[in-house]
C-alpha cells in the first residue's frame, strides 16, 4: 500500500504524465488499475501537494457523490491549484448522486435550463424530487429555474435545503444571495455571499460583488 506522506504514490506519477500528454483516458485507466475510490479519498490528505492535486483531479473524472466530503475539504487547501481542481471536480460529482435514471433525469433538467425552458425544468425537477427528495443537485437546479421565473422566495427555500443536504455547495449559497438581492434584502444577501466565501474562499468574483454590496448597503443604512 502506498504511504500517504512518505512514499510518492504512483498516482502522482500518473498525474505528472497527464500534465505532459493530457490523455484523460489513460489517466483514468491507470488510476482504476491501482486505486479504489476510498484510497483516493485518503490521498486527498497527503502532505505532498502534487498528490493532492492528482487526487482532486482524478476524483472529478471518476468519483461518485461519495467524494463530496474529501473534495469539499480541499476548497480551503493551502495550494491554489488544489483548491481550483477541487472546485471543478465538486461540480462534476454533484451530478452523480442517485441512480442512473435519476442522473439522466437531472441532465434533462439541466438541458431544459440551458435552453431557457424554465417552466419545463421546474416540472421535471418536481417529478425527480418527488422520487428522490435528497438529490441536492436536482433541488439546486430547480432553484436556478425558479430564480429565472422570478420565484425568488421559492428559490431561496430550495437553496437552503441544498445547503442542508450538501454543506459544500457554494453555488447554492451564491444563488440565495442573488435571490435575496432581488427581494431587496441586502443584509441577508451579504450573509449568503459571506457563507459562499466561507465554503469556498476562491470565489474572487463573489468577493468583489460582496464588497460592492457592502458599500451600497452602508450608503443606504
Question: Could you walk me through the main structural features you see in this protein, from its secondary elements to its overall organization?
Answer:
With 221 residues, this protein is an all-alpha fold. The protein folds into two domains: 10-95, Leucine-rich Repeat Variant (Alpha Horseshoe), CATH 1.25.10; 97-220, Serine Threonine Protein Phosphatase 5, Tetratricopeptide repeat (Alpha Horseshoe), CATH 1.25.40.10. 74% of the residues lie in helices and 0% in strands. α7 (100-114) runs parallel beside α9 and α10 (152-165) runs antiparallel to α11.
Keywords:
Serine Threonine Protein Phosphatase 5, Tetratricopeptide repeat; single chain; 2 domains; 221 residues; 13 helices; Leucine-rich Repeat Variant; mainly alpha
List the helices and strands and how they pair.
Elements: H1 10-21, H2 24-34, H3 37-43, H4 49-62, H5 68-73, H6 80-93, H7 100-114, H8 118-131, H9 136-148, H10 152-165, H11 170-182, H12 186-199, H13 204-220
Helix pairs in contact: 1-2, 1-4, 3-4, 4-6, 7-8, 7-9, 8-9, 9-10, 9-11, 10-11, 11-12, 12-13
Overall number of structural domains: 2
What are the low-pLDDT stretches, counting only 5+ consecutive residues below 50? none
General form: globular
Q: Biggest sheet, in brief?
A: none
Structural class: mainly alpha
Strand content: under 5%
Separation, N- and C-terminal Cα atoms: 60 Å
Amino acid at each position: 500500500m502506498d504511504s500517504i506522506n512518505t512514499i510518492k504514490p504512483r498516482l502522482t506519477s500518473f498525474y505528472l504524465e497527464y500534465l505532459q500528454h493530457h490523455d484523460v483516458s489513460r489517466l483514468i485507466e491507470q488510476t482504476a488499475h491501482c486505486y479504489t475510490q476510498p484510497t483516493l479519498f485518503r490521498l486527498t490528505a497527503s502532505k505532498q501537494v502534487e498528490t493532492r492535486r492528482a487526487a482532486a483531479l482524478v476524483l472529478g473524472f471518476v468519483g461518485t457523490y461519495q467524494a463530496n466530503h474529501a473534495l469539499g475539504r480541499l476548497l480551503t487547501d493551502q495550494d491554489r491549484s488544489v483548491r481550483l481542481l477541487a472546485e471543478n471536480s465538486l461540480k462534476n460529482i454533484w451530478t452523480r448522486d442517485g441512480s442512473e435514471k435519476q442522473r439522466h433525469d437531472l441532465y434533462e433538467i439541466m438541458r431544459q435550463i440551458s435552453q431557457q425552458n424554465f417552466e419545463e425544468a421546474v416540472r421535471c425537477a418536481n417529478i425527480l424530487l418527488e422520487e428522490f427528495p435528497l438529490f441536492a443537485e436536482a433541488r439546486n437546479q430547480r432553484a436556478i429555474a425558479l430564480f429565472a421565473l422570478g420565484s425568488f422566495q421559492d428559490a431561496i427555500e430550495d437553496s437552503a435545503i441544498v445547503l442542508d443536504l450538501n454543506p459544500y455547495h457554494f453555488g447554492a449559497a451564491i444563488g440565495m444571495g442573488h435571490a435575496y438581492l432581488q427581494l431587496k434584502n441586502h443584509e441577508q444577501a451579504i450573509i449568503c455571499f459571506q457563507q459562499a466565501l466561507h465554503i469556498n474562499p476562491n470565489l474572487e468574483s463573489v468577493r468583489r460583488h460582496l464588497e460592492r454590496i457592502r458599500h451600497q448597503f452602508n450608503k443606504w443604512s
